[in-house]
Structure formats: structure tokens, C-alpha cells
């Protein structure tokens, strides 16, 4: 957390940029007064001097970028955290030119691409808004169907409806929610209530083991298509190895199912699907052909036609003399504490995340070839030396970790990579299912779960 009060007190904002390109600056200014460096220090644990130094460096450099990861978004206030980052970029004019901007570093290589291609409930394939009548009409004409203009549910809302008995079947593609989602015991109970659970995946994950039907898909090395990076860079992915004969690409499985259910879908390859996306969402993808990707290696969207070079830097309009530009709105937000704080019964704050060599729920990376050096082969609870000393526990010793939702046994790793009072675990190992501990709370806008904060107790196992 940087001190907004300092930005206003020392004039660390771009007044000309704000006047030309933003609105609601006065709302932000009136709300930030309590957020002094000292108050920010109390919240974050950082020194007030470090906060002041960082704020000055960010505001006065020739170009500053904010790169963030899931530590920003996996909170009940994740959307507000992102609003606050956007406020900082607008406040200082650090957007729309090289070396500036906001860079969300995603958990996987194609998170952006998956969202762009229709995996978000409020968007059509191609990143077009489902609520936009003009955009929706294009798809309706192409597909010969009438589309519901209202967004469907996020995963969070879907699970709520499972709990209320409104949904009886669930189709999971390329996910392992039993191990990856918060409050694992609750998730398992929901799945056990289903009449039908279908899982489409490349391994028999913990979720797939509960499924009534498993549809065998293909891995990244067995398919053809495109990936989209977090900076909107589109690249080709090509088949590297021959797939198993009893598997299909994801799009083939979906086409087969749609056809069986009365809506024939027939494509010959991923290129045909891509060309349909280019046709329907031409403002974004129209100029990005497979031939161009072969020749140029990668292209950044938007790229509306084949003569367009792609958009390497987004929002350059902020630095052009254009009096008719649509202005960007400041969205003032308040700090909110984690929903579950440490107390005498549960005195430690647990935050969860990933480890260097392991990928998600470890269904792929647990099969590393023999001889490859792997730093961590089992789960640990990472704890500061001061806390380990106060508990009388040694490195490598087994402890019981308990929250209000569950408990598990895990080995201790003593490290200064965490601060006193904070402990860390990942969710990679099914043998140590960390998410039996985590909190079943979500951001009300995005539906993202609060993975980063829950209270736990740690007990030495005699």
C-alpha cells in the first residue's frame, strides 16, 4: 500500500494528465486523507520511510509500471485492490507509453486467451460483450440461434446454486476444483450431491476420480491453436507429439457433444475456429491470420485488419492531442481487513500460493522424469524462526495445522521468507490438501476466493 495522502501533500501527481483524461479526481482526493505513510505502515508492516521512498520513486520516474500477481486479486476485496492500482496509474500518468502501465502476471500461460475466447460468463468468444446488442447480433446470425443477453454465473455463484439444490449436474473442463478451491470439505460435499459430474481432462485428477463420466482430452503438446499472453500477445501453438488415439482436442469434444444434443457443430481444425473469431470480433482479431503469425511470430491485439501492425502499447490515446477522448474514471476505495484475522485460538495468518517447480494441483508436474532436480518434493508449512522458536518446533518436524474448517498434518520449513505471524503453504500436493483450511469467502464482483488470508493454529505433534 502506498500513501495516497503523500501523493497529494507533495504534489506527486500529474495535474495536466488528470485534467485532460480523467474524471472524479475530487472524489479520490477527498477520500485519501486518512491514508498517511504512518497509517499505511500500520496496515502493511512496512516502514513509513520505505513507503514514502517508493511513492516518490513511482511518481517521479520517467516511466513506472505496476506488475501484480494473485496476491492482489485472491481476496474478498480483490477488485477494489485492482481499482486502487488503476487509480495510481491514472494519478501519475503512468499508462499508455512504453515502460509504464499495469501488468497482471497470470497463473498460467493462456489465462488471457481462455477469457478472451468465451470462458468469462459476460463475454462472447473474441472478448466481445454479451450485453452489447450489436456484437451479440453478429454471433446470432453466424450461429443461427438466439443468445441470452444476460451473463451467466461465475464459478462461485455456480457452487452457491449447487448448495441450494438449483443445479444437479456439473461439467468441468481442465480444472481440479476439489483440490484447488477453498474449503475443500465443502466442495466435496457439493460434488457428492450432484446427479451427474462430467470431467474433461488429461489426467485422472482428484475431481475426475469423483466423476460419473471422464472425457479424455489432449495436452498442450498434442494440440494446435493459439495462446494469448497477458500483454495481449497472440502466438501459435503447434502439435509436438502424436496424441493417444483415444483422446480428442477440447474443441472436438465440445463439437461432438453439441451435435449429439441437436446443434450440429463441425470444424475441420483450429484454424477454421480462429477464422470465425476473426470474422465476428474483427475489431480485435481481424488482421491476425495464421500466415502472419507464422511469419511474424507474434502479434498484439487489437489488430483490426491485415495491414495493421498490432497494438504493442495499449492506451496510447492518453498521450495524443485528442480533445474528444473518453475520460477515465477514478474509483476511490477504502481499505478492508481480511475477513478472518488471527486471535488467541488461531494466532497465525495463513497465506497460500504456488511453489517454483509445481503447477497448480500437481497433476502434471508430479510426473517429472527421474533425474530432474526438484527443490521441494512435499508440502511444508513455511514459518519464521521466531515463531518456530516460540512453538518449540524444529525444521522438518511434523505439526498439526488447524483452522475453523479443517485440519491436516504437515512438515515444518523454517525460513525468513515469511514474516513473524505469517505462515505459507501451497495447494500442490493432494497428500496435504491445504484447502481444507481456507476460507469460503469471495469477492462479490469477480467471484475470486479469499485464498490469501485465513487464521490457523499450529500444534506440535508429540
Automatic annotation (TrEMBL):
InterPro entries: Asp_de-COase-like_dom_sf (IPR009010), MoPterin_dinucl-bd_dom (IPR006657), Mopterin_OxRdtase (IPR006656), Mopterin_OxRdtase_prok_CS (IPR006655), Prok_molybdopt-oxidoreductase (IPR050123). Gene3D superfamilies: 2.40.40.20, 3.40.50.740, Dimethylsulfoxide Reductase, domain 2 (3.40.228.10). It holds the Pfam family Molydop_binding. Residues 58-258 form the Molybdopterin oxidoreductase domain. Residues 348-455 form the Molybdopterin dinucleotide-binding domain. GO terms for biological process: respiratory electron transport chain. The keyword Chaperone does not apply. GO terms for cellular component: membrane. Keywords: Iron, Iron-sulfur, Metal-binding, Oxidoreductase. GO terms for molecular function: iron-sulfur cluster binding; metal ion binding; molybdopterin cofactor binding; NADH dehydrogenase activity. It comes from the Bacteria. This is Molybdopterin dinucleotide binding protein. It comes from Neobacillus bataviensis.
